[in-house]
Design a protein that fits this description.
Helix content is about 40%, strand content about 20%. The strands form six sheets. A five-stranded antiparallel β-sheet has the order 6-7-10-9-8. A five-stranded antiparallel β-sheet has the order 11-14-17-18-19, with no helix packed on it. The chain has a three-stranded mixed β-sheet with strand order 3-5-4, with no helix packed on it. About 20% of the residues are buried.
Length: about 400
């Protein structure tokens, strides 16, 4: 068992809370870890949302470091009631009205799918937990920011919940029950979407004609499910409708790109594709010398160049002597993929292999001096075999896991 704490740096008492958690874990003989975070994007998302994302990212990192498969939090029934009411006031759909589940994966928050979040106290009220803290003499701290009604959840907690409690005693349990019904409904929608996805998906894209054959409600349900399984934050209904309108009515040769905070949506060869957002300006050419490594990471391209031994391939002694350059396509490059095959522009190779236009800048080229040696997604430029006593080297490209929604 481990105990984790996140120091947000937002309260003057944050240091005291860290010390309290350190002492509590020590007295219980529990391994303790903590992270200090910087809460960014406050202007764009507000303090509550920005702090939440930074907190869960830190918790996800600690789970990975310690190999923790289940992260338990202290959310209780009052938290669930507040969450359901907030989602209702925001006009959320059935997924939002389901509030928090007793256990679920949260790759968008934790950064991976290997850790589940469990909430074992969801059926307990705040009053019951406060009483238990007194009965069992559990030392605890109070976060003074919980009294700040500038934050939506606090305003609900202090101005709305007491009135509801006075007129509708026990409403928290009934809201929790309603959340359970919404979760059951969402599971049915997910099952339907999974069936539609199996019919409409081609590898990791969607067939435009098959999706268009669905009615609007079923189509939107499928698209939301498709976004969810890729860990993309759920867009608004208006954005989803506009996205589908642009993708569905466009000519197939049109360069349709719809931008989302987490991704881009494209149409290519009558298929709808998702891709990670990409900033060409952030990619710097990478110069290096090969010293026998089997793998050279290429962070700007979210991947790595692999150097594998093989019976055929490049002479390793020659390769060690070459100044290597990894960079984006500049235009005009040509490649011969094999003996007896023509040397053609990269554009024609990409088209023949079905590599869409937006993916091409994300696939690096490896040069030896001024000569093209390898094009990711296509392969090596053919060179005549030369006699040698050692195995050859075959170059390949490895995309970092999670770096793209559609494999190349």
């Amino acid at each position: 068992m481990f105990a984790f704490h996140v120091h947000h740096g937002l309260s003057p008492n944050a240091g005291h809370w860290l010390a309290h958690c350190t002492d509590a874990a020590s007295s219980l003989g529990v391994v303790f870890d903590a992270r200090r975070i910087q809460v960014d994007d406050v202007a764009a998302h507000g303090v509550e949302q920005a702090a939440r994302h930074a907190r869960y990212a830190a918790l996800g990192e600690m789970c990975r470091v310690h190999g923790v498969p289940l992260l338990l939090t202290g959310h209780h029934q009052d938290d669930q009631a507040e969450t359901v009411l907030l989602q209702l006031l925001r006009g959320s759909g059935i997924a939002g009205l389901g509030g928090m589940e007793a256990a679920n994966a949260a790759p968008d928050l934790l950064g991976d799918t290997g850790t589940q979040i469990g909430r074992p106290l969801l059926s307990a009220t705040r009053a019951e937990l406060e009483e238990a803290a007194v009965v069992f003499s559990i030392a605890h701290v109070d976060d003074e920011s919980n009294a700040d009604t500038r934050y939506a959840r606090n305003a609900l907690r202090h101005a709305v919940m007491p009135a509801l409690r006075a007129h509708f005693p026990g409403f928290e349990a009934r809201l929790a029950r309603a959340a359970g019904h919404a979760q059951a409904g969402q599971r049915l929608l997910d099952a339907l979407a999974a069936e539609d996805l199996a019919r409409c998906a081609t590898k990791s894209s969607l067939d435009v004609a098959k999706v268009a054959a669905l009615d609007a409600d079923r189509r939107n349900n499928l698209l939301r499910h498709w976004f969810a399984i890729h860990g993309i934050r759920m867009p608004s209904a208006a954005w989803l409708e506009q996205c589908w309108r642009q993708v569905s009515v466009a000519r197939d040769d049109a360069r349709v790109r719809v931008t989302h905070a987490d991704c881009e949506v494209h149409r290519y060869r009558n298929q709808v594709h998702l891709s990670k957002r990409w900033n060409d300006d952030s990619v710097e050419p990478m110069r290096f010398t090969w010293n026998g490594e089997s793998r050279v990471p290429c962070k700007d391209f979210d991947g790595a160049i692999l150097f594998n031994e093989a019976e055929e391939g490049i002479d390793p002694e020659w390769l060690r002597q070459q100044p290597l350059l990894l960079q984006q396509r500049q235009g005009g490059e040509r490649l011969k993929p094999g003996a007896g095959r023509p040397t053609r522009p990269l554009k024609l190779h990409y088209q023949a292999l079905g590599i869409p236009e937006w993916e091409r800048p994300r696939l690096p080229l490896l040069h030896a001096g001024k000569s093209l040696l390898f094009a990711a997604g296509i392969g090596m430029h053919w060179q005549p075999e030369v006699p040698r006593s050692s195995p050859g080297i075959v170059i390949a490209w490895e995309r970092t896991a999670g770096a793209a929604f559609t494999p190349v």
